[in-house]
Amino acid sequence: MDKNRIKWSLRGMLALIIALTVVVPASVWAAAGDVISIEIPGSSPRKMNVGETTSYQVLATVEGADHKQDVTGGVTWSTSNTAVVTITKGKVKAIAAGEATIVAQVSGVKAQVVVQVQDKIKSIKASPNAYTFVKGNEGTLPKVSITRANGKEEEVTSDIVWTVSSNLAVIENGKIKGVTPGKVILQGKYGSTLVKVPITVTDIISKIEVKPATIQLTIKKSTPLKVMGAYSSGKTVNLSRSVIWTSSNPGVAAVKNGTVKGLSEGQATLTGTYQGQTVTAVVNVVPTLQKLIMGQKSLVLSPQSSWALGVMAQYDTGKTLMVTGGAVWSSSKPNVATVTNGRIVAVAKGKTSITAKWGNKKVTIPVTVK
């Protein structure tokens, strides 16, 4: 080989070594030092549910390094109880309820974490399970409980991590606040288990109105209360199931889920509230008319004679009421006999029928003039 070529090759290698020495930071070389200690970040014990999997990170303090280094990829793992948890390539899987210790080892240095495995979660629920907020208003985050496969119930509210599906609502200082009108989902996470709570953010209502404002009901009958609201923009919305109602006389009329029910005879005033707006409706509860009873079942009169009949209304409550003056009277043959306010006057010989009608009922008797 040409001596000059060898000389230039040696010079090139020397230059490369000098360049590497200048460019590569000293910390890289320090990273090749001995591992002093390792740790698995996070608290101990760790809680898991049967069937869940998770991975742990391992950080090492290395001689000569100015910061802790991630050595997870080079860890040798072991578990004290494979019936409770298994670990493969750093991935821990919960097998059965119980407790096990996971050990990480790097270059002869160890760290460990205790894992507590609980029975699988069968269900999770939030209370309340839905919200409706006026824009700008806020409420406390829901309480959350779980039921495990063994039937045991636990409150886990303090362990829930909450998020919202959009910026229509925000979580601030442990409360949920409506920001912009619309629908958003509040999502709570407990381990790998999720609970979702729908939230409706509404605009500010300027007026509400109930129709009809006066209602008549019979006992045990119900009717829905229709309430319409108007926003400042003029847009209307049905608030029938959103208004909170109270009754001045709950023994007469009661309201539930926007429906009023007659319970006993009398009158009650219903007061509904929504967003600080109030509306009222008057409910009259009346008994059901069962039948009309005439004072006579039949009459026989002579021409030019008269007879005063009375008619009584009978209700489902057992109550009776004389309604003679309020009834509508008629004769099928006025040329035989006439009737006015229950007073029958015989005109000529023959037969006729006298009828009294009141409310939705009527009663008829035969009258013979001879």
Keywords:
370 residues, mainly beta, Immunoglobulin-like, 4-stranded mixed β-sheet, rod-shaped
Radius of gyration: 44 Å
| Backbone structural class | mainly beta
Low-pLDDT residue spans: 1-31
Beta-strand residue fraction: over 45%
Global shape: rod-shaped
| CATH architecture annotation name of the largest domain | Sandwich
Main β-sheet: number of strands, strand sense, barrel status?
4 strands, mixed
> Helix amount, in percent?
under 10%
Average pLDDT reading? 88
In the sheet with the most strands, the strands line up as 2-10-9-6
> What is the fold-level CATH name, i.e. the topology of the largest domain?
Immunoglobulin-like
Count of alpha/pi helices: 2
Report on this model:
It contains 2 helices and 40 strands. It is mainly β. It folds into 5 domains: about 1-30; about 35-115, Immunoglobulin-like (Sandwich), CATH 2.60.40.1080; about 120-200, Immunoglobulin-like, CATH 2.60.40; about 205-285, Sandwich (Immunoglobulin-like), CATH 2.60.40; about 290-370, Immunoglobulin-like. It has a 4-stranded mixed sheet with strand order 2-10-9-6, with no helix packed on it. Strands 12-20-19-16 form a 4-stranded mixed sheet, with no helix packed on it. A 4-stranded mixed sheet has the order 22-30-29-26, with no helix packed on it. A hairpin with a 6-residue loop joins strand 4 and strand 5. The chain is rod-shaped, with a radius of gyration of 44 Å. The N and C termini lie far apart (about 160 Å). The relative contact order is 0.07. Mean pLDDT is about 90; it is low at about 1-30. InterPro entries: Big_2 (IPR003343), Invasin/intimin_cell_adhesion (IPR008964). This is BIG2 domain-containing protein.
